Amino acid sequence: VSFSLTILGSSSALPTSQRFTSAHALTMHGHSYLIDCGEGSQIRLRQLGISLRRINHIFISHLHGDHYYGLYGLITSLNLLGRKNDLNIYAFPELYQLLNLDRDIFPHEKLDYNINIIPLNNESPQIIYENKNIEVLSIPLRHRIPCCGFVFAEKEKPRKMLKEAILKYNIPIACIKGIKDGNDYICNDGRLISNNLLIESAPPQKKYAYINDTLYTKSVIPYVKYANILYHEATFDEKMIARARQTCHSTAKQAAIIAKESEVEKLIIGHFSARYKELQPLLNEAREIFPETYLAEDGLNFNF
Amino acid sequence: VSFSLTILGSSSALPTSQRFTSAHALTMHGHSYLIDCGEGSQIRLRQLGISLRRINHIFISHLHGDHYYGLYGLITSLNLLGRKNDLNIYAFPELYQLLNLDRDIFPHEKLDYNINIIPLNNESPQIIYENKNIEVLSIPLRHRIPCCGFVFAEKEKPRKMLKEAILKYNIPIACIKGIKDGNDYICNDGRLISNNLLIESAPPQKKYAYINDTLYTKSVIPYVKYANILYHEATFDEKMIARARQTCHSTAKQAAIIAKESEVEKLIIGHFSARYKELQPLLNEAREIFPETYLAEDGLNFNF
User: Fold this and answer.
1) Rounded to an integer, what distance in angstroms lies between the CA atom of residue A165 and that of residue B158?
2) Is pLDDT of A203 > 80?
3) How many angstroms separate the CA atoms of A205 and A197, rounded?
4) pLDDT (tens digit, 9 = 90+) per residue, A138-196?
5) To which H or E segment does residue A204 belong?
6) Which of A189, A253, B72, B127 is the most buried (most CB within 10 A)?
C-alpha cells in the first residue's frame, strides 16, 4: 500500500507568485483527503493531476481565509462536474455561514449534492473520522482563533499466526485466538514459546501529522509521536521569534524541536511568511536540530 | 499615454491547469481597474507584477462564482497589506451578502478599510464611474442571471484652437469659445473659414469593451462601436450553438459578427469552455468573419 502526500500550497496568509496558501492532498489506502483548502486549491489539484471527484472528506484547520477560501470554487466545480455524493467538511461550525450555506441568496447556484459540516472541537483531542483502514484525530492548537491539527493514522491490523510455528509446535486451533491476542504458548513438554515467535511482526502503522497554524506547543508531541511525516508550520525564522509569539505562529527551529522530541521520521516545514524570498536559512535552522527536515513547495510529493 | 489590458483568467466556469477563471486588469491614464475577479486573481496579479495596491475600482459583471470568488482572497490580502483607502466594487447588490459584509461573523478578520458596493442596473446602460480622463458604462447583457458588460472610454478632450489660425485670420478672443464649440468663422472680408481649419483635430478616444457572459445579442453594438479592443466571450464553437443558447453564452463566430458590425479594431475572445483542449478551431471560426481576432490567454498583454 502506498501513501502519498502532495503539497498544494505552502505560503502563509499572503500567496506569492510561486506559492499558494495552505492545502495538502493526502492519499491513504486509495482515498484522497484534502487538508485545508486555500485559494486556488482546485487549480493545484488539476495541475498535479489529482482527481477532484475522489475527494469526499475535507479537513479545515481553522477559519482564517488562507485555509478555506478555495472551498468556494471547489464546491462549485464539484457541482458543475455532476457530483451527487455528500461532501464531508470537518471544520469549526462558523464555516456554514461563511460559505453562505445557511441562506438562500444564491438560488442559481443550488448545489445538487449535500455538504455536511462536522464540527471540530477545540477543547480536547478527538477522533473525527475513521474507516476500516485509518482514523483521523483532531488536536487543539494554540492560535489566535480556534484551530486544530490533524493526525491521520493507520489502524492497527489484526495480527497473523506464523504458519510454520503452528506446524513446528503443533498448536491446537483452540489456542490460536489467545496467541493472536498476545498470549505465549506452553508446549506439551512444558517449554514456553514467546508470543513474538508465533505471530507475524505487525507492519508499522503509517502516520501523517499536520500542525498548522500554532504557537510553539509541546502539547502536540504525544499525538504526533513516531509519525512518518510531521508537517509543522514554520512561518518565521528564529530571528522573528517575537513576531511568531505575537501572531501565534512557530519558527523553523521550534518546528524542528517538536519533530525531534516526537521522534518522527521526517519533518516538512511550510506556511512560510511571504517576506522570505529565500528559504534556505529556515531549512538550515531546522536541520541543525532535526536533519531530516524538508521545505514544503507547491507540487512537491512525498511517498511514505 | 499608454493603455494596457492584461488577461488574468481566460477559462469559463471551470478553471483548467493553465487557465484561471475570468479576470482582466486594465490600465488607463495610470490607474488600474480590475474587471471580474475569478479565483486566484490576486495570484495572477502577483505573477504578472501588477500592484494590488493600485487597484481602487473593481467591476464585477455578474454573480456567478467564476467571476467573483477571487474577491475573498484579494480583499483579505489588501487588508494584510495595510490598505486604508476605500475600495469601490461595482456589482449587483447581492454581492454584499455573498462577501458576508452584512454580518459580523468574522470579527478576527475585520477590515481596516471600507468597501463600497456600487449597485449595477440591469435595465439600461448607465455611466457607473467617471474621472477626468475616462468614463465607464455598464450595458445590460442577456445571461441566466443579471449581468452587465462594461465599456471603458476616454472622455472627449476639450478641443484646442490652432494658434496659427488665430494669427492668420486675425480672430478676436471673443469668438474663440464659439469656435471651440464647433462654430465656423466669418472673416471681416466675408470669407467663411470652416471649423476644422481652426481647431486641432481631436485625438481618437481610446475605448475598451468587455462583454462577458452573454447570449449573442446585437443590442451591445451601439455601445462597443469603434472600440480599440472588444473582448467578447466565446464559450463555445459554432457546433455547440444549441448549448450556447441553452446556457446563455456565445460562440466564437457570434463574437466575430459583433466585432465586425461594431467596426472595432481588435477582437479578443475568451471565457472558453474547459472542454476545449485546442482553441485554434475557435480562432479560425472567428477569423473567417473578423480577421483581427486573438485568443485570450492568461498573462497575455495588449497595449492600445
Assistant:
1) 101
2) no
3) 20
4) 999 999 999 999 999 999 887 788 989 999 998 998 998 899 888 999 998 999 999 98
5) none
6) B72
- Locate the chain A residue with the closest alpha carbon to B96: A105
Of A46, A69, A97, the CB nearest to B73: A69
Q: Is B102 a residue of the active site?
A: no
In contact, A53 and A60? CB cutoff 8 Å: no
Residues contacting residue A191 through CB under 8 Å, at least 6 positions apart: none
Spell out the residues 6+ positions from residue B67 whose beta carbon is closer than 8 angstroms to its own. B21, B22, B36, B37, B38, B60, B61, B212, B213
Q: pLDDT class for A24, splitting at 50, 70, 90?
A: very high
CB count, 10 Å around CB of B82? Answer: 9
Q: How far apart are CA A105 and CA B224, in angstroms?
A: 32
Taking one residue from A and the other from B, the number of pairs with CB-CB distance under 8 angstroms is 97
CB–CB contact B76 A105 (8 Å): no
Q: Do B42 and B75 touch, CB atoms closer than 8 A? A: no
Q: Which of A100-109, A146-155, B249-258 is least confident?
A: A100-109
Q: Which residues contact B300 (CB under 8 A, 6 or more apart)?
A: B6, B7, B294
In angstroms, the separation between the Cα of residue A288 and the nearest Cα of chain B is: 32
- What stretches of chain B adopt beta strand conformation (E)? 4-9, 23-28, 31-35, 55-59, 87-91, 115-119, 126-130, 134-140, 148-154, 185-186, 192-193, 207-211, 229-233, 266-270, 293-295, 301-303
C-beta of residue B231 within 8 angstroms of C-beta of residue B212? yes
Rounded CA separation B159/B176 (Å): 11
Burial class of residue A90 (count of CB atoms within 10 Å of its CB; 0-12, 13-18, 19+): buried
Whole-number Å distance between alpha carbons of B264 and B228 = 6
Pairing type for strands B207-211 and A229-233 reads unpaired
What proportion of chain B, given as a percentage, has pLDDT over 70? 98
User: What is the side-by-side order of every strand in the sheet holding A126-130?
Assistant: A126-130, A134-140, A148-154, A207-211, A229-233, A266-270, A293-295
B55-69, B134-148, B151-165: range with lowest mean pLDDT:
B151-165
Output Rg (C-alpha) for chain B, integer angstroms: 22
* Tens-place pLDDT, residues A65-90: 999 999 999 999 999 999 999 999 99
Q: How far apart are CA A174 and CA B19, in angstroms?
A: 65
Give which of B8, B10, B14 to mutate to test A binding, by max A Cβ within 10 Å. B14
Report the pLDDT value the prediction gives residue B161, as an integer from 0 to 100.
Answer: 87
Which among A46, A103, A105 is the nearest to B17, CB-wise? A46
- Phi, psi of A108, rounded to the nearest 5 degrees: -80, -10
Q: What is the pLDDT of residues A213-234, one digit of tens each?
A: 999 999 999 999 999 999 999 9
Residue of A53, A77, A111 to mutate when probing chain B, most B C-beta within 10 A: A77
What ipTM does the predicted assembly reach?
A: 0.89
Flag whether pLDDT at A243 surpasses 60: yes
Contact A220, A147 (CB under 8 A): no
Task: Determine the Cα angle at A138 with ends A132 and A144, to 5°.
Answer: 160
| CA neighbor of B2 nearest in space, from B26, B18, B25 | B26
Closest chain B residue by Cα to residue A50: B17
